[in-house]
Each structure stands twice: as structure tokens, then as C-alpha cells.
Amino acid sequence: MISPVRPQARSEWAALVEGLFSTPAVIPPKYFYDSLGCTLFQAICELPEYYLTRTERAIFTTHADTIAAVAGRGRQFVDLGAGDCAKGEFWLSALQPRRFIAVDIAAAAIEPALARMAAAHPEIEFSGVVTDFSDVLDLGPELDGSGVTFFYPGSSIGNFSPDKALALLAQVRHMCGNRGGLLIGADTPKEPSRLEAAYADTLGVTAAFNRNVLNHVNAMLGSDFDPAAFSHVAFYNVPDRRVEMHLQASTPQRVQVAGRERVFTQGDRIHTENSYKYSPEEFAALLRRAGFSSVVVWQDPAGDFAVYYAE
Ligand code: AVJ
To answer: Residue 229: phi, psi to the nearest 5?
Structure first.
């Protein structure tokens, strides 16, 4: 039921090591999502400051009928970055997909979700693809030629630079053929104080999520990063329209990584995430540049978040 496409290649490992030895060091955000990271991310989604998830859910709930009417029922449904499939599952009743394909880098997240949904919905064919689509979206032979709805919620597209986002959207557009569309959510630019609160919450859950990437890297590479020696830094980079997250060495650190030593002086940072923000006009333009001709937008009354259907 679950097929791996391009499993963890040696080149991925080499790219991670190279990032750790560059200046400044960088760890791609896909490495947040080990088992604990997935759990911490679920907790983030419930934080009072993290408005993204609940605002998107409110938009989906308010406009479910309209969205279902434009997206069409009875299609194949591809849940990109599905995680626990909670967001995708919402659409089962409204869209009544014929097939549900969960796509995620974390097999541990989608396996139980698929089993749970398959038991509850015997009329739907469920499958999973474990893949890393940060460079190429390769679903293997998973899709049949019929109509398909791609689903990419939560502003996960914000992890890509605008160039890379355009490339991913163009690949999705290609896979849509002329009988498919994309339902996608993207966060909007707003006051830096609100954005910064969403990524540096009072309880420190996002800080734990950020630091935990070092546990994951240690488990993957056998390195000896001390998560306690790095502090969580999150700020809105106004000119680049992105929230940045970093891990900053609070004291000098010598870390053993893949048989080499990486030295951090106090204050050195590891860049762990970018989260780009788009106005509805900007994002609709990006979708059109990716080859989609019709774009519909829904927002919450405050304009905090936006949901798009493009075909
Ligand atoms: C899963 C990429 C949408 O950027 O808001 C949450 C990840 N990082 N808090 C985001 C995240 C810190 C999240 N995305």
C-alpha cells in the first residue's frame, strides 16, 4: 500500500553534511520531521500564537461547498506533505475522492493515518508514497490518467524559495494535465510582531521543534550536536518576506560530524528554515506563471491566510 520513491539517497546525506560545513551552516527544514518533530509540529498547530492552521481550517469549513464545486467530486486526491492526514481527511466527505494518495517524507506519519482512514472508508482506495519532493515531485506510476486534485495545505509551499516554489507548482501543473487542479494554502505578510510570535511562542514549543532537528541530525549522521547549547532565533525578514529560523550557539562549540570537526563560535547560527509569505496577488501571479490559467482565492475576514484553487 505504501511505496517508497527515491528512498534516502547517499546524495541526500552528502548534501546534509555539506550544509553543516558551509558558512553559515544550514539544515534543510525537511529534517525537522522525525517522530518527535512530527509530534511537536502537531503541538505547534494548536498554539494560540500559531494562527495558520486554525485560520486555514476556518476558510476550508466556511467555503467547503464552493471549493468542492470548483474542484469536482469523485477524483483522485493527492495529499502533499500529508503528515497525519488530518487536513486531507477533512475533504473525504466534501470531495468524495475515488482514490486518496498520501505523499510525505515521513513514512511513520502516513502509515497509521492510511490504515485508520482505510478502515473508516472502504469505498475509497488509499495509498501512500514516501518521497522527498523538495527538489523533484516524483509520484512514480501512482496516478491513473483520470481527474486529480492536488492538495498542499498549511503554507508548506513557504518553505521553498519563490524560484523553487515556481518549479514545484509547474511540476504539479504538468501532472494535472487538463483534468486536474491544485488546492493550496499560503500564509500572508503581516505585522512582524504577529509573525514573530507565531514562530517564537511563549511555551517554547517552536524552540523545542527547532532544537530537535539537532537530535535528528545526530541520529542520522552519528554527530554530537548538543541541542541545549543552541538557542532558538526567529524573525521576520521584511525585504525577503520570510520568517527565518536559526539555531544560535550560546557558547563556543566543537561538533564531530562525519569524521570531521565543525567549530561554532559563540553567536554563530545554523539556518534551519525559511517560511515565505505571499499576498493573494503575488501568489495568484506565481500560480499563473506556473501554468495555471484559472485561480480562485478565499480568505478569512482579517486576511491572515489565503486558500487558492488553481486549474
Ligand atoms: C509546515 C512549513 C508550514 O513554516 O509555518 C512552524 C513549519 N516552523 N513553526 C511553517 C513551522 C515553525 C511550518 N510549515
So the answer is: -90, 0
> Within its chain, how far is the Cα of 5 from the centroid?
18
The pLDDT of residue 108 is 85
- Give yes or no for residue 80 CB within 6 A of ligand 1: no
pTM > 0.90: yes
Give the whole-angstrom CA distance, residue 267 versus residue 247: 9
pLDDT for position 85: 93
Considering only CA atoms, which residue is closest to atom 13 of ligand 1? 156
Rounded-to-5 percentages of helix, strand, coil across the chain: 40, 25, 35
Q: One-letter amino acid identity for 281?
A: E
219 Cα to the center of ligand 1, angstroms: 22
pLDDT attached to residue 117: 96
CA torsion sign, 249 to 250 to 253 to 256? Answer: negative
| pLDDT at residue 1 greater than cutoff 80 | no
